Amino acid sequence: MNVIETKIKDLLILEPRIFADERGWFMESFNQQGFEKILAERGLEVPNFVQDNHSLSQKGVLRGLHYQLDPHAQGKLVRVVQGRAWDVAVDIRQGSLTFGEWVGVELSGENHKQFWIPAGFAHGFIALEDNTQFLYKTTNYYSKACERSIVWNDKDLAIDWQIEENMVIQLTDKDRLAKPFKERID
């Protein structure tokens, strides 16, 4: 597996090895020992995954920026198995040297990339194609009481969402009414 380190130390982009021939392809999408080794080599905490989630979004659907408070904060290992999405993680860890900074990566069914986002980051994505299927493993169970959101187009964060010309953004009421970054609840 190829590991791409980002400008924020704890965020990693993982590129699995693809074995392809005229019949199709094969890849190991997750290997606990391999994942632990990648994190340990970088001095990062090794998580325990407890839940897998799968979503389907049409082009222009934007989900996020979501996070959960302790004791239900979640790390996420995310990937797209069909379609394309622009995936974003924002550092919301008080005292972090990269507090308020973000990293974005295109995930697609073609590039097979995965994005490791540990707890302490807000997460969101926009579907760049219809029928985009998004999978993610989480390190904690969902808790509605601990769920929070930051408005996706916060001026202080200035996230480049890779919005294409004439793309219609679709949001839930929860995401439309999310708080600005400076007002988020930690």
Automatic annotation (TrEMBL):
UniProt KW keywords: Isomerase
List of catalytic residues: H66 (proton acceptor), Y136 (proton donor)
Pfam families found in the cross-reference section: dTDP_sugar_isom
Top-level lineage group: Bacteria
Catalyzed chemical reaction(s): dTDP-4-dehydro-6-deoxy-alpha-D-glucose = dTDP-4-dehydro-beta-L-rhamnose
InterPro entries reported in the protein's UniProt record: RmlC-like, RmlC-like_jellyroll, RmlC_Cupin_sf
Biochemical pathway: Carbohydrate biosynthesis; dTDP-L-rhamnose biosynthesis
An annotated GO BP: dTDP-rhamnose biosynthetic process
Annotated positions for site Participates in a stacking interaction with the thymidine ring of dTDP-4-oxo-6-deoxyglucose: Y142
SUPFAM superfamilies: RmlC-like cupins
Cellular component terms (Gene Ontology): cytosol
Example of a GO MF term: dTDP-4-dehydrorhamnose 3,5-epimerase activity
CDD domains: cupin_RmlC
EC number(s) stated in the UniProt entry for this protein: 5.1.3.13
Subunit structure, as described in the record: Homodimer.
Family: Belongs to the dTDP-4-dehydrorhamnose 3,5-epimerase family.
Biological role stated in the UniProt entry: Catalyzes the epimerization of the C3' and C5'positions of dTDP-6-deoxy-D-xylo-4-hexulose, forming dTDP-6-deoxy-L-lyxo-4-hexulose.
Protein's name in the database: dTDP-4-dehydrorhamnose 3,5-epimerase
